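Fold these two proteins, one after the other.
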Amino acid sequence: MTDIVVAVFIATYLGMAAGRVPGLKLDRSGIALLAAIALIAVEAVTPAQASAYVDRPTMMMLFGLMVVAAQFGVAGVFEGAARRIAALAARPHRLLAAVIVVSGALSAGLANDIVVFAMTPLLCTGLKSRGVNPVPYLVALAAAANAGSAATLIGNPQNILIGQMAGLGFWRYAAIAAPVSIAALAIIYGVIAWTWRAQFAAAHAHPLDDDKRASLFSNRRQFHKALIATAVLLVLFATPVPREIATLAVAGVLIASRRIESRQLVGAVDWGLLILFAALFVVTGAFLAAVEGEAGSGGIAARLAEAGWLPDRLSTLVPLALIMSNTIGNVPAVILILQAWPSPPEGAMAALAILSTFAGNLFLAGSLANIIVAERAHAAGVKLGFADHARAGVPIALLSTIVAVGWLAALRLLPL
């Protein structure tokens, strides 16, 4: 049975790297779900074991944060922000700065995948209507969503997972990550402005006056409700209340609305992402349980430590984050690392959150946010290809990582 589990595990992570199965419409969520179903079907894992492998607090927090983000969507915040940004089409450098600031700021407080999912088609439509090539701004949207989300433990799925499973303090982590996250946003601006300097110099667009006056929200009441919910959540994060309980409680209050149907908020939840998380927990948990006995005394983590392969130093964590994030993706990479390494030091987990997120900017497949931007742009008639993204993504990721390593080394969170 161990051979079957190992084979399913390898096939799953090859699927994570490829992103698709030739001839089928399976994405990463579908691949992971089928793998978990296969393990249960062949009785390599019982339903009870599969349930035990899933980290419930992480799943609860992900769901709750998606509901909070959906509240901002109901208030029209994403649409309003995209229209105001597109109104700067005649001033490319201001437009670029606006995309980066808005995407980074929203992603720090909300799940970055939801931010780019909502804003990508709106930005494409607004810029195309003015004859502006949206590609550099889409790269900026994705890169800034990744960099901005690194600032907090609620900015992206992998940070949520790290914060929950490693027990990192919310505000302590923000104090560590926010400065380097802001530096990464500045790097994104500089790299994209240089890479597409010819397009920016030849820009000839005519913004619409109506968009200059567009409100940043379409429903004032729902916008205020979203702000209050976010403020309450941030206050609760500074208390002993478990973060997943605080998040679910706030989400529950939002769902109990007199004006917004529950299905509107619940329907905005990224169920595919939740399925991806749950299924990968099952597949990875089953794999580690199957091979743990063969790893000898102390398990897999002990054997890795003996070989000097544990990512407890920046010299091992940096290449690991870059390689794994851009092959299997940063979310699956973090799930695998955390389940194989049961007692990591706090400094290593803070570094993993920052570095795995920055590494996601290297290539198009490096993060879910990148993939969402590319797919949503394609649906809107704009092609964002691997080469277009890599032109800016590679220098952005490498420069951001260098800055992060210098910052983490200066703080002495992790030895070189």
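Now the second one:
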Amino acid sequence: MTGQDLKAARMASLWTQNDAAEKLGVTQAYLSMLERGTRAVSSEVAEKAVQVFNIPATALPLGAYQNRRRDESYFQRALGGLGYPGFAYMQRSKKLNPAEVFMAALDSDNLDARVTEALPWLPVAFPKMDLAWLTFNAKVHDRQNRLAFVTVLAAQIASEQSDLALKAILLKTVATLERSRLAVEDTLCRESMTAAERKWLRAHRSQAAEHWNLLTDLSIENLDHALL
């Protein structure tokens, strides 16, 4: 988030610097420096601004991705806080950058099916998501096949919604990931599935899932909330 982003959000709210500074918990002089660019917007101010102003969560700073275990409630509350209809009843006290939530989910061994079904919604709901950050981290952690497959589904949603510009952006990301496609078989965050389930999915998965060497039956047909 830049000082110009802060200024634009403040002006859109028709607030003076004094009004906005009070809401953000900073002084008017400090906010003035932020808006002029003489001081960098801290992560604390950015988080507060997303709550105070109508600024998308994609404006929140993204640091280095940390590979650590998150429980189901983390994803449910994070998605609810970002506006996902399926978890609207569960919300975090503060929003997270959707790219951070997306990457953490892709890097999970086992996810609740409802969380997995929410993933294609993220790139559609947040078209300014940092796909370059996601692509980089997915490759570092060998999750590029998972990211590509979910992005294919997101592109299908964009097509259903006649958002051809977003569809093109998403398919460009898929093309980038194609160059590093992994040959090893993987699941879409369901490593605990049985041998029988794996055998069934090899015979019944979609062409896209087969291309990306994933054992999953996820398709656009079972993305009810994402298509709202």
